Amino acid sequence: MDRQQSRQFAAGPEGLSAVRAFVREAISGVDQEMAEDIELLASEVATNVVQHAQTDYEVHVLHDDEAIRVEVADRSSVIPALRSLAIDADRGRGLLLLERLADAWGAQEAPAGKIVWFEMAHPTRSLPR
User: Fold this and answer.
1) This prediction's pTM
2) Domains of the chain
3) Which of 91, 92, 119, 129 has its CA 20 to 30 A from that of 43?
């Protein structure tokens, strides 16, 4: 990826609006619908860190002419997984949103925890699944 921006965030919920603002700025100039989806997904992944990992985390936004990739790195080694939800569940839909909106996503171990990432191709491009 040609361009990259990164920023650290504290473990509390007060940082979630800052994540959205950081991502919005990092992808300025991108198609509005795509930008809204990326901002939503980044916020969902960051919310998972706040609720489950409860560690400080770093958000990386990487992009080039083909796609935008967002990575959220935290200090928990627990890899998230999709699960079935009750129809009236009031939480737990973040990974389902990743599954439905992102062109590709995943989670991987990292030396100090894990990284959850997703990619979205620019509207005129497509990524292999």
Assistant:
1) 0.88
2) 3-121 (3.30.565.10)
3) 129
